[in-house]
Structure formats: structure tokens, C-alpha cells
Amino acid sequence: MPPNKPWYRTRPTTWHLDIDHFINPFIPASVLPHFPTPISYFLGYRSPASKRAKKPALGNLAIILFAFVGVFVTITIIGAVGEHYEGFRGRGVPVVVGSFGAAAVLDFYAIESPLSQPRNAIGGQLLSSIVGISIAKLFALSPHFESIRWLGASLACASATAVMALTGTVHPPAGATALMAVLDKEIQALGWFLIAPVMLGCAIMLMCALVVNNLRRRFPIYWWSPESTGEFWMGRREQEELKETDMQKGTRTGDGKQSEETRTGSSSELRLGRGARSDETLRDVEDIEAQSGGTVSESGEEDDNGHDGGDERGPRVVISRRGVEIPEGLGLRPEEVTFLESIRERLIPTEESKRD
Length: 356
Prior knowledge:
Layout: H1 20-23, H2 37-41, H3 48-52, H4 60-84, H5 86-89, H6 99-108, H7 118-140, H8 145-167, H9 172-183, H10 185-190, H11 195-213, H12 236-249, H13 260-272, H14 279-282, H15 284-292, E1 295-297, E2 310-311, E3 314-320, E4 323-325, H16 334-347, H17 351-355
Parallel strand pairs: 1-3
Antiparallel strand pairs: 2-3, 3-4
Helix pairs in contact: 4-6, 4-11, 6-9, 6-11, 7-8, 7-9, 7-11, 8-9, 13-15
């Protein structure tokens, strides 16, 4: 489909809204590089120098142990606050909101997932709480509320999913928050006060995740978005340099092979499940290589040294139109293999794009 074709002349099934395209220019660029190293380290920032210092990859047993400790400590703290804080006990706030269990699994085990990043974990819960409470109050106006409460719960969960998807804050546990805001009588009785324990729990979970996950891994991968931010606040010269850098990431070198920078950008996209263009995010590929023992590529071409998929740096995961090549010895979870296959399918041109 031609890039200059007006959206209203395309099929509705191809319409796409990326809210980041409109708001990212106004989001200030990351200030973490300017913080003292001990602080920025536990906020997820890694300097180029620290990236070059390779660490042995963690085995799954160590990752499970860290996740166990993180989930246990976090839920314990949240439960202790809910149990002993009079401001919550007097209002009948649950000791632990049910959705925090699923959120803890994401924040301490699947920490590289976009669904686990702070924007999603906090923004998704906040928006879902607002949606759930609003629908609960709307349905409560009906004299038959008790008999249609289940319908309101369904609408709340569906609406929260749509709002999160449109705002780039998808966080699956937040769907349960919206559901329970209507379905659970105790939580529904809290009304707008539900936002307070939900946000406090999110803050406690984030602080624990920053400490536990950054002991040997990195969290978060990004705070707001993996794409460039703050263009509105940049001078014209900085904007031109940023655009030039982005263009270079999408081009090939003179000999027809991908540049190392382009491969790095592609790997970051694979890791994050969305377009990654910021300088900080582009360094994430080294985390992938450290855990996989090699490098990740989205093409089946040979590298600059003439090797096809495996050089002195180690094995590669190669994604091409022909399929996904996974080196022996690299264990992947089923959901990871499914994700790689979804990337491969996007490389296959559709019949409609061929006609255009």
C-alpha cells in the first residue's frame, strides 16, 4: 500500500493508531544518564562502559529464585500495609487486591516484556481502575443492578482492555482490577477510593522490582517508551541529528549487508515487541546476547565476516521469510518461540501489498 495513501481511502481493517506518535515528542528525554551511577543503575540505566563488561548469563534456576524472593517480599509488604494501615482497614479495603498476584509474576519473572514496564504496570492499573469504577457507578443507577452486575463486569473488563490498548499501557492484571471493581461487592463499595490502594500497591511493587531485578538483571528496559522522546524540546540541530540517526538505522552499508547498528536496532525490536529507536534501548541487544550466548538477527544473510548465522561471537537466532533458525543449546519457552514466529509472519508480504 502506498505510504502517501490517505487513511480514509484504506480498508478499516488496516487502520492503525499509535498514540506515541503524537505524545512522545512532548515527553522529556531520559535524565537517567545524568544521575549518580548507583542510583541510575537501580533505575534500569546501563552506561556504554558497563555494557561492554560481559557477565555470564543467568540460568533459569537463578531467575526463578529471584522471582520467588521478589514476589514473596512484595506481596508481604503490600499485605502488611493493607492489614495495619487504619486508613484502609476502616474503609474495608482488601488486604491485597487480587490482580497484584498476576502483576507480581510479570514484574519479577517476565521483566523484559513490554507488559511489565512501569508505564504499563502503573498506567494500566490506573486507567483500568477509573474505567471499572465509572462503569460500576453507571450500572449502580439501575434498580436491577444486582441482577446485571455480571454484565457490568464484562463491559468494564472489555472497556479497560480497549483503553489500555489505545494508550499503550496494556497490563493484563489490570483487566482483573476493572472486573473486580464491578463484580466484587466490597471493592465496588470503595468507589473512587479504590484508586488509592491500587496505586500504593503499584508503587510498592515497582520499588521492590527495581531493587530485586537489578541485582543481576536489568529492569525496567524503558520507563515510558522504547522510541525516541523529547523531540519538541530539542533544538533544530538536535532534531536533524536524531532524524539522520534514525535514517541510518534503517539503511544498509555499501556492500549490501546490514550495518551493525541496524542489526542492533532489529534485535531491540525483537526483544521489546515494538519499534525501538532510542539510544538507550538500542543497547538492550547486548542483554539479549549475554543471556542467549550469541546474537539475534532478523535476516538470513551472512554477516560481515562471511559466516552464515554463527561466528566467533556465538550462535544467532535468524528470522527470515523461510523460517526461524534457533541454534542448538538455546532453550526457549513456548511463548518465546511463538513470538519469533509472529515476527517471521510479518516479513511475508501479503497479497494486498503485492497488488499495491
